[in-house]
Structures are given as C-alpha cells and as structure tokens.
Write a structure and sequence with these properties.
Layout lengths: L1 H31 L8 H6 L1 H11 L1 H8 L7 H33 L5 H9 L4 H9 L1 H24 L7 H20 L21 H4 L2 H7 L14 H4 L6 E4 L10 E7 L10 E2 L2 E2 L2 H8 L2 E7 L5 H10 L22 H6 L4 E6 L8 H8 L3 E3 L18 H12 L6 E6 L11 H4 L8 H20 L8 E7 L21 E4 L8 E8 L3 H8 L4 E4 L9 E6 L2 E6 L2 E6 L4 E6 L5 E3 L7 H22 L7
Parallel strand pairs: 2-8, 2-9, 5-11, 6-7, 6-8
Antiparallel strand pairs: 1-12, 3-4, 5-10, 9-10, 13-14, 14-15, 15-16, 16-17
Helix pairs in contact: 1-3, 1-5, 1-8, 3-9, 4-5, 4-9, 5-8, 7-8, 17-19
Amino acid sequence: MNTSMHHWSPIIIRFLMTWGAIISTKMLFLAANFSFLNISAHDFIHAIPFDLSTIALYSLPHLFFYLLPINKSLQAVKETLAGFLFYVTITIIVLLNMWDVAYFQFSQRLSTFDTFSFLIQSPDKGLINYFILDYWWVSLTSILLINSIIMLDLRLAKKRNKQYVSIKYQVLYFAIGSLLFFSIGRWSFGPKPLGVLDANKYTSAKNVPFLLNTAFVTLKTIQSEKLPTTSLISLEESKKYFNPIKEISSSSKKENKKNVVIIILESFSDKMIHQTINGIKITPFTDSLLSQSCYYENGIANAKQSIEALPAIFASMPHLMNTPYILSSFCNNKLNALPSILKSHGYSTAFFHGAKNGSMRFDSFSKKLGFDRYYGKDEYPNKKHDNGFWGISDGYFNPWTIQKISKIKPPFFVSLFTISSHHPYQIPKTYNKKISGALSKEQLSFHYADESLRDFFSKAQKEPWYKNTVFVICADHIPQQLDKTSKTIFDKFHIPIAFFTPDKSIPIEKKSSYFQQIDIEPYILNYLAINTTYYAFGKGAANHESLLYLNGSFYLLSNDTEIIFNESTNAAIFIDKITNKSIRSENKSLTLKYRGMLFRLKSMIERYRNDLRRNQTKAK
C-alpha cells in the first residue's frame, strides 16, 4: 500500500500543480479583463470541468512515460524523461493561457489554434514579438510562474522516497492511469467529449471565456478548418461592394411586439411539396399554408446540413467553409443573433427540437444564440414516443410544444425544429396503417410530418397568442438523395420560405425573387420595427442575388447570371442563364456587370473570413 502511494504521489502532486498554474493564469486573466466579464461564484465552479479536462489531455504524454512498465535499470531514465515532459506541459499551458491575458481585450474571444497559425504564417506574425515586448509584465509573469513550478517539482523530487514497483503492478497502474486520465479528458461518457461550445450551457456568452482557458480551446481546435491567409481583395476595397453592418432606425414606426415562431421543417425541399403521388397529396397542409402566406417560391438554403442551417437562419451567417460554424474554432465568436436581439427588446425565447439533447450541439449553440430555454428529448415527459433513431416523433412533440409555448410570457420568440422527415424516415407504426402502400417510406414520412404540422397549427389556433404571431416556415436543407437528380446549383439548395400571419399583416402573395435563410433575420427585425444596429449577410427584402458554397467553390446567383468562383485556381466562370453561354474571368471583355458581381462575391468572402478571424461578427 505504501509503495502504491509513493508511485502515484508524483502524478497527483503534478496534477495539482498544473491546476494551480491554470487557476493562477485564470485569475490574472480575470484581473486584466474584468471590465469585459461579469463573473459569479457559479462560474468558478463550472470552470472546473474545463480545467480538469485540460490537465488530463495535456498530461497524457507525461503520464504515458511515467507509468510505462519498465525494468529497474531504466527507472531513472524514465523518471527524467517524464519530468521533462511535465515541464514542457506546464510551459505550454502557461504560455497559451497568459497570451490571452493581454490579447483577449483585442479579440474578445479566446485564441484558437487557427489564431496562432495565422499569426505565425501571415504578415501579422510580428504581432507576437510586439506582445512579448509591449506586454513585458505578462512575459515576465509567465517566466516566473513556469520557473516556480519547475523549481518546486525539483525540490519535491529530491525528497521523494523512490521505490521500484514490480512489472505486474506497473502494467496495472498503467491501465488504471490511462483509463482515468482519458475519462477526465473527455469529461463525458457519451459519444461527444467536452467541447468549446459546451461552456455556453453554464453561463452567459460574456463569461464563456472565463469558464474555458486558451490551452483547452487551442487543443480542441487543432483539427478545425484553417481559413486561408491570402486576400482575394483588400479589406478597404471590399467595403465598396459589401457591408454586413445593418441599421434599423424606425423613429416614426413603433415596435409592434408581435410573437415570432420559426418552424424549421427537416429536409422539406421545394421539390418535396406540391406533389401528388398515386392520388395522394404528400404535403396537403403545407401546400395550403403556403397559399395563405407571403411565399418565396425561390427560397434558398445557405446550408447542406442541419448543423449549418442554424447560424444562417438565426444569425444571418452563411456557410462559406468546409467546417460547420458550430464545430469550428469560431463557434464562440460574438454574434448579433435574432434571439439575443429580441431578448434585449423584452422577448422571452425558447428553442424546441425533438432530437436527443446534444444532437449537433444544438442545445449549446441555442444558448449561444440567445435562447433562454432549450426543450429536447430529455425535457419531453414520455420517452415511449422516441422513434428509436433521432428522438421524439413530430406527432407527439409538436402538440407538446404548443403546451409549452402557451406558458411562455409574451412577446416571445420561439423556434421548432422538426425531425420526422429525416432518413431513415422512422414514424409511428400506427400511422403506417392509415395509408396504403401507395407511398414510399420516404414519402410517407413527409406526409406524417405534414399532418404533424397541421396538428401544431390546429392547437395553436385555440391559443390567445395565435393571432398576434408571425410564423416563419422554412426548411434546413434539401434531402441528400435529391442531390443526385438536381441539375443546377439552385436545385441543390431550393427550399420553401414563407411568412404567415393570421391577421394578414403580411400580405398573402407569391414572390419569385430569391430569398435566402440569411434574409430571415433582417426581414423579421424590419417587420417588427426593432431599432438596432446589427451584423448580417442577408438583406431581408426582395433579393436579386444569392450566396452559396459547395465543395470548395463559391457561387453567386442572380436572376440571369451565375458565378462559380474557384479559389484554388483564382478563376471564375460566368454563366448567362438565358443563353446558357459561359465566360471565364480571364476574358478581357468582361462587362462591368460581371466584374461588379465578382468583386461583390470576393468582398463577401473576404469580410466573412476577416471578421471571423478577428471576432468582429457583431456590430459595435
């Protein structure tokens, strides 16, 4: 027993010393950036999982060599190597965390792996030298803290009673230690380990940087997509063609304080509605609802996956990189999201999604967007209604959503994201028996989702808040199987988008102009006459252009022209939709219209990357 304690004590002591280093850097971070934070006692407690996870993950190399089963003759060499790795670990953690003691006030977010990569590779790499010299007290404090821990460890090592442990026990300890540190590092027994976005579950967006630490964020973003450091167009020139800062000043118009309900229909592409198969209408209620709405028949998704749709719909941030925004190193950037803006104007907010809590990290990201409450499978009272794949079927979850909405204080902003029309199209068996085999499994799931939407509205009509509500109907993306039959890029992103008001305050009409997911936020803010300045890529009104990204190419669509821009070759192709003729950007006879569209496209890409990198995706 005594031998066992001697064997484990260096690991435990070094673990505690590392934790002490993280706490020290965190307190310095708090002192230097106090004006940006609003810390409570709960934030200190909620920071612990992120601290411990950081220690466990960074300590794995040290742990591996310290517990590696080895003969007695090599014991001294092993301990020396393990000690060296511990000092390297401490140095890395302290330097990373201390960097943001100074740099945070400029970026307003913790630095990521992409941040350091960019600073090293870009012309801004001199910034590192500048910070080391200008913030000399940070550099000096880092050296003193690292040196203090190393000297303390060396002093304790001299006093340590070294005893050799047999190979049999070394193997056992190696297995126990590896399992323990791996578990602490993950801080989860589910499929997804603790992530950067999870901090939003426990505190306000303002205090998320305190719960996290730069060492944790850097490690978690190593595999995140790195944005190109080259410029497509100068930032100053880009401002001539595109500006994401929007302002609504409605001094003559009073805010109307209507409730807002955004319904996101899973995979409801425009091709899945208005269909009759073997005499059966697939989506009769949706078809009817659109006919009573302001319906944009050329609605466009700015996403190909559900996880990409939320930033577009709620924060007017298009998907313009390979990594979904929610999973990127920029997921904790500041945003002018619709829920947070409306919340600041007196709205109650809630997000409903019948899937498993944690699915696509929607629960964490909804908090980031400004939703007060998240209702998922865990909150739903009857687990027997789980479809066995994604979560609670729409037929059960939709009516329950109405019950919960009716308990929310108006005015409110809520969103319902459905799940039943998603592969593998699993719906209640009792519903299968209602319709003959005239419909495929996929078609039947859309019919079921449509009936569930009918049930949602039939119950909503009975509630006192119904007539004072604007309903937004849209899809997240088209079903993936339709990509095979989609002949154009437009077909790959074509979804229904509509605005329905029971009091007809938004006129019933069918519009042929483009309308994107990123236009929803500006549209709603203008409709509600919310006085605000915000950041958005969408316009919110009749739009003649649409911005898309797919498989490394950027697209800008207009009524009569399509641009395909490939960054790797720096070439663009202009397609005339009327004549179907194409012109390459190398052509010296490009019209002013084509040049203007290309500059506009490059400007949007440049602002997107620049603002993400510098955490400027929120209007000041």
